[in-house]
Structure formats: structure tokens, C-alpha cells
Amino acid sequence: MSTNSLPLTRHSISAARTTLHPPHIHLTPVLTSTTLSALASSPRGSGTAGERPAQPTLRLWFKCENLQRGGSFKIRGAVYALGRLLEGEGREGREGIEGIEGAEEERIDGWVREKGVVTHSSGNHAQALALAARDQNLTAHIIMPSIATPQKIAAAKAYGARVYLSGSTYPEREALTRQVISATGARLISSCDHPDIILGQGTMGLEMQEQVSALMSSLNPYGCESGGNDPGKGGLDGIITPCGGGGMLSGVALSAEGTEVRVFGAEPSFQGADDGKRGFYAGERIEQVETMTVAEGLRVPVGWWPWGVIHGRGLVSGMYSVGEEEILAATRLVWERMKLVVEPSACVGLAVVLFDDEFRALVEREAGEDGWDLGIVLSGGNVGGEAVAQMLSDESARL
Fold first, then answer.
1. 74, 191, 226, 345: which one is catalytic?
2. How far is 274 from 394, CA to CA, in rounded Å?
3. What's the CA gap between 342 and 67, in Å, rounded?
4. For the segment 256-266, what is each residue's pLDDT rounded down to a tens digit?
5. Hey, which CATH number is domain 10-71+195-397, 3.40.50.10420, 3.40.50.1100, 3.90.1150.10, 1.10.287.380?
6. pLDDT in tens, 115-150
7. How far apart are CA 82 and CA 109, in angstroms?
8. Start and end of every Tryptophan synthase beta chain-like PALP domain (predicted)?
9. Among this protein's residues, is 269 annotated catalytic?
10. Can you tell me whether residue 134 is helix, strand or coil?
11. Is the full-model pTM beyond 0.85?
């Protein structure tokens, strides 16, 4: 498949970053938490194969994309991909050309301004594309499942999008998207399955690595503990991100290519939502997922383009999954200890760090006494007050 996007490399992410500036994109902070780092460094769980519970040494660095414009990291990919289309340099990805004769050859900048753009999303990419389109005075057609969070639907409408409600499953969303494309001629900007989306999301990984290095070299909140016994290390050992369609995970993996930073993916396990993990270890992408996990932003299968980075190029070191109660417990901890508004999808990485025996054993084994400085992406904060109250009242969400 041909595309005029830049190649999927760390250098291309650096190039993409030069095009993303305020007011379209915020530089989100990296925060630390000695409380959550201490919890992550305490023995918990039953261990594996009858062994003692792992007790890794972890210093956690949180990239707060919940404070990003539009409430999530998704604005990065939406702004960059839309900008490429309007320059006439981008092209649709695998989904975008399906069923549209001659789409690859046609220059599309004028077409996009006339017909607008379209996507399907459970909420965060919907808001991001609606916001990016509004910035460019374009029409955004957004397909959202009828069970999406009411606040996310309302936000997309408030940003000026034309919202169409579909059935709850991924195939139903895709089917309605094709109908809207046929009726309007709008151009698809996938939530994850396009090189430009991946490159845009990857800018967050570069930022995080640079921010942590700067913090370590100045007023390091973890003091001399960061970097262990290697005074020249001065950076992250690893980054863990949530994984739904895989755009962020693959972008962050590319941002760490050629460095010593290892990248991991985190998914819910409920009702087979861990398609990325299962496919990763089976060596074959799983193309359909039907789940009602509380991590609603992760109810989609890993896309074709992200899969090529995650598995095909081996840039992700491992995939892990956690249950619903663990995700809610991690979410509650961020709310109560860090005073941050985050959605459950954003906290799947932290849940893995706190509760997954295999991941914790890996860190203990490979990091030793020095421990790891681990980046955790808090990917979004689009959650309503009623949902927060309900989850806070759930006793099963306590650590």
C-alpha cells in the first residue's frame, strides 16, 4: 500500500513534533508520586508458580495527557494527520481507501475542505478530531457508539461535530462509518490505523523522555535513587502505555527506537479485551474484539499499521493485561493520591505495574537493587462526575 506519510521512525516523530505547537497542542507535565512508587515497590500478590511475591524497586514518572487539550493524547495524532491532509501530503491509511475508487492517486486538500473528515471512536479520538477540525473551519462527521459516555458525546457536539450514534460493537461502528463516507464524501481519519496518527501520538513519547531527563538532572524528586548506581544514566528505563488500537503504543515505541528505553503495552483482560497481548504472544494480529470493559477507550482491536511496529518490528518488549477491579483500584489511587481526574482507560498501565505478577517479576529480575525509572502514560481524563462518584463508591475499587 502506498502512502506519502513519513517513514515510521524516531526521526519522523521528531519532524512531526516540529509541527505541533500551542495553542493546538499543550505541553503536558510529568509528575511523580512517592506514595505510588512506594506501593509499586512493595510486595503484593501471590507471586508466580508458588514463588514469593515480587518486590521490584520502581520510581514512577507520570505523563499527564489527561491534561492535554481535548482531555487526552488523541489530539496529537488528530492535529498532525489533519495537517498532513490539508497540505496534500497525507493519504488515507488501510481503512481510509477501502471502497473509495482512486483515493490513493487523488490529491485531497481541496476535497477535505469541501467535504470534511469522518471517524469512528468511543470518545477521545472523536473529541480530538472534532476539535482539530474546528480549528481549521472544517466539518467533522463523528460516529460514536450509543453507549459512549454522555460527556464524551456532548463534548464532540460542543466542538461542532456532526455526531452519529451506532451500535456498541466495533463492526457496527465501521459499518455506519462507511455509510457516512458514501453519503458525504468525507475523508476518514482513523483513530489509530494510519502512519500519520502513529507519528503524532509518538511525539508524546519524545516529550516524556526529555522531560524526565531534565527533571533528573535538576530538582529530582527521587533524589540520588534515580538512575541507581549509574550516575550517567539520567533517563527512563521503560515506559508503559495503555493499548487499544495501538496508535499510542506504537508511536511511543518508535520514539524510543535506538535508545535503551524499553516499551510495554497494557490492556484490560475482561471479555477478551487483551487482543494485543494474545496476538503478540501468538504471533498473529486479532482483528475483532467485543468487550464491555470499564476501560471503554480500549474496546478496539490493534490496528494493522500499529501491529507492524508493535510485533512486526519487535519494538515493544512485552504486553500485559489486568482485570476490572485492578483497573478501578489504580484509577482510584490516582484520583485520591495524585488529585488528578483520569478515566479508567488511562490507568491500565499503573494497574499492571501494581498488580501483574509477571511484569513485577520482570522488573525485579532485570533491574536488581538499582530498580527502574518507569514512565507511565495517563492517557486521558474524559470522565463525568457521576461516573467518578459511582466508581469511588465501589468498595471493590479499593487497594
1. 74
2. 24
3. 9
4. 999 999 999 99
5. 3.40.50.1100
6. 999 999 988 999 999 999 999 999 999 999 998 888
7. 10
8. 57-354
9. no
10. helix
11. yes
